[in-house]
Each structure stands twice: as C-alpha cells, then as structure tokens.
Design a protein that fits this description.
alpha/beta, TIM Barrel
Length: 303
C-alpha cells in the first residue's frame, strides 16, 4: 500500500464498547412509531430492498420472475414503489438487465469468488469486469477474511482498491462477512479499511453464514460511516444483509439509521436491505394498514 497521510494506521482503529453498543442498539427497538410514520417507513423499506437470488440452481426463468416481482410487488395496491435493485450472479446479469428494462431498478452482481473470496486477484478482477461488461450497475465483493484475520490489512486494502478500479462506473459494495470477524473491534477496523480503500457501500454479510446482520453490528458500521464523513466529507452507503425478514425489525433499523446518520441517508442511494423475504412481510403489513386485515402469505410470490 502506498503511504498516504490521509489513510490511518489500521492497527489503531477505535476500540468498541460491546456492552454500550448493545445497549444503544436495543434502545432503537423501543421507539414509538405512529401510524403515518409507520406507513411511510414501510414504503421506504420496500424501496430500499435488493431482491436477491444467489443459488447454484438459478435459471433464466427464475431471474426473470424475480425481476418481474421487483417491478410489480403487488399490483392490487396502487402507488407502490419498486425495490432498489435485483442482485444476481455475474452469469445472470445480462438476463436481469434486459428484464428490468427502463424501470430504474439497478442490477447488482456479486463478484470476487463470492461467497468465500478464496481466489486469486486475477480471478477476482476478471469476475468483476465480466459482471460490469454484462451490464451490472453495482458490484458486491467479499473481503479476504483470512488475510484480514491474520492482520494483513494492507493486503485487504489493496485488494479492495483494485476491485474498485475494475468496477469503472459501477458502485462497489464491500461485504465484510461480519459473522466471521467475531468481534465488534474487527467490524470497525474492516469498515474503516473498506471505506478508505474506495467502497461506495459497506455491507454486513453474504447471507450464506450465521449470524448475518444484527443491530449492534450495523450500529458499529453506521458509526464508522459517520466518523468517516466527519473526517472526509464523503458519504458512504450501508447495507445490512441477512436475517432481516420482518417489517418491525426493518423499521427499527430505519430508526437507527435516522438517529445515527440523519435524513441525508434515508433513501435507497445510501441505504439498502439485503433481505428478499422482507418484501412479502412489508406487503402484508401494508395490506393490513390499508384494509384492516392481514392477507394470507399465499397471495404473495415465493422469492
């Protein structure tokens, strides 16, 4: 890594008070949310979702169906927003790009040997460039957790910076896989490395291991974004992914986002949910608000 006075020594990033973070995170779940605010929050949540299919059995048909759902969440409910993006493997980007057309929905693609990240840098660069050339608007990369846990922070920094360059105009989401980092101190350090290396988003998880996103982990990452913004003036986006399947929990995340980063981050350019199953629960809650009764889950497509 080239020496740069604006880049901190990542061996000395802030230490985290785990008990304090867990207490603060729990407070966000106790906020009272009134009916109109709840409705607005549910609509905003829908518009922040990245609908995702990342399975070995993915087919063109499955991806097209997901893209249709992204544009038509519930046709019987007028005025619904679309989701933010559809996330697929690089081999499915071209299919997804054509399927969403001019809807404004972004196409995100995982890359860099997702989800393990266990591949050479050349393979990761080629993977990224292929996805971008196929039409991806956003790239979701995974960091090399093994290198990070060995303390090879410069390696992780340089790899992220290289992938950022390979992205061209596509936005880069850097997945920390926080469930493998174990401590909040490491989550904070990995967040700082990713942001200084050029991440446009920092993202908690691949969704392939447990635990995935949690409120304490997300709070640490939001506070890292806040501190980075104060130091550099640059906004970084956030994406908690995995484990957020209920509307009530999503609203707690939005409260935490607003109170930690403020109104500027309260849109899908700066915050996403990586939780496809969340969409159906939000739709059920919206129907309850609109009609007074819950609609059966059988009325909604299985993602």
């Amino acid at each position: 890594m080239i020496a740069d006075k604006t880049i901190p020594d990542f061996r000395f990033t802030p230490t985290i008070d785990q008990v304090g973070v867990e207490e603060r995170a729990s407070r966000f779940t106790k906020r009272s949310i009134k009916a109109e605010t709840k409705l607005n929050g549910l609509l905003l949540t829908l518009n922040m979702i990245d609908l995702t299919t990342l399975e070995g059995k993915d087919t063109d048909g499955k991806v097209k169906q997901l893209c249709y759902k992204a544009q038509h969440l519930h046709d019987a409910y007028p005025g619904l927003p679309t989701v933010a993006a559809v996330c697929v493997y690089p081999s499915m980007v071209r299919v997804a790009k054509k399927a969403v057309g001019d809807s404004g929905i972004k196409i995100a693609s995982v890359a860099t040997a997702f989800p393990s990240g266990q591949a050479s840098l050349k393979v990761k660069i080629d993977d990224t460039k292929f996805a971008v050339n196929e039409g991806a608007d956003e790239i979701d990369m995974v960091i090399s957790r093994g290198k990070f846990l060995q303390g090879e922070y410069n390696f992780v920094f340089d790899e992220i910076a290289t992938i950022k360059e390979a992205c061209g105009t596509a936005r880069l989401k850097v997945i920390l896989e926080t469930g493998e980092l174990v401590t909040l101190d490491k989550v904070r350090r990995a967040s700082d490395i990713a942001m200084y290396a050029g991440a446009d988003f920092i993202k908690t998880s691949t969704g392939k291991i447990s635990p995935a996103a949690t409120m304490p982990v997300t709070l640490v990452m939001l506070e890292a974004i806040r501190d980075f913004y104060y130091k550099t003036g640059k906004m970084i986006a956030m994406k908690p992914a995995g484990g957020i399947s209920k509307s009530k929990l999503a609203l707690h995340y939005l409260v935490m986002l607003k109170e930690t980063l403020g109104d500027a981050w309260m849109n899908n350019e700066w915050f996403r949910f990586g939780a496809s199953s969340l969409a159906n629960d939000v739709l059920m809650q919206l129907e309850k608000e609109r009609t007074g009764v819950y609609q059966s889950s059988n009325y909604f497509s299985i993602d």
